[in-house]
């Protein structure tokens, strides 16, 4: 039953994706790959309708995660670092930059993160596809990480006044 619950959750998972101007081609390739693989993914294309840069793009996607419009999100820029920093300013959003499969799996399994960021100037798209799928297929495992994740969420609330 547990196996089927994981499959159903993945089928029902709604994913958002966006990027700044440094990562448009990169994002389009990841988006197309995940769409063809059957994921329910939406390209927010925030910068297409707003005069903005990566802080606004990342903030917009993070707010859609906070508001539960999407379960998980991808944000891309040149390095993945700036968008992660900005996304992490939104309460309830936990973003991490990953440029390898192991880190992406741990981002979900150990840290229960809901946003993954990558840098188009750091890795190639084929590796990025593997990282994206590894993260999407990984679920929070709890165990020894549960108390640490709960502590992050508790400490976050210190500044949510």
Automatic annotation (TrEMBL):
SUPFAM superfamilies: Ribose/Galactose isomerase RpiB/AlsB
Keywords: Isomerase
Pfam annotation, one family: LacAB_rpiB
Gene Ontology BP, a term: carbohydrate metabolic process
Molecular function, one GO term: intramolecular oxidoreductase activity, interconverting aldoses and ketoses
InterPro entries per record: RpiB_LacA_LacB, RpiB_LacA_LacB_sf, SPI_LacAB/RpiB
Family statement drawn from the similarity comment of this UniProt entry: Belongs to the LacAB/RpiB family.
Protein name from the UniProt record: Ribose 5-phosphate isomerase
Organism of derivation: Acetobacterium bakii
Phylogenetic placement of the source organism: Bacteria, Bacillati, Bacillota, Clostridia, Eubacteriales
């Amino acid at each position: 039953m547990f196996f089927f619950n994981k499959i159903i959750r993945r089928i029902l998972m709604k994913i958002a994706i966006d990027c700044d101007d440094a990562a448009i081609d990169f994002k389009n390739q990841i988006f197309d790959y995940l769409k063809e693989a059957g994921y329910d993914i939406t390209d927010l294309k925030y910068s297409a309708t707003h005069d903005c840069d990566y802080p606004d793009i990342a903030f917009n996607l993070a707010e859609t995660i906070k508001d539960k419009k999407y379960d998980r999100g991808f944000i891309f820029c040149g390095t993945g670092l700036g968008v992660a920093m900005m996304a992490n300013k939104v309460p309830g959003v936990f973003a991490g930059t990953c440029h390898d499969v192991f880190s992406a799996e741990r981002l979900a399994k150990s840290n229960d993160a809901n946003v993954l960021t990558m840098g188009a100037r750091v890795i190639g798209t084929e590796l990025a596809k593997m990282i994206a799928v590894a993260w999407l297929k990984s679920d929070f495992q709890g165990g020894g990480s549960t108390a640490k994740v709960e502590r992050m969420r508790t400490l976050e609330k210190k500044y949510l006044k």
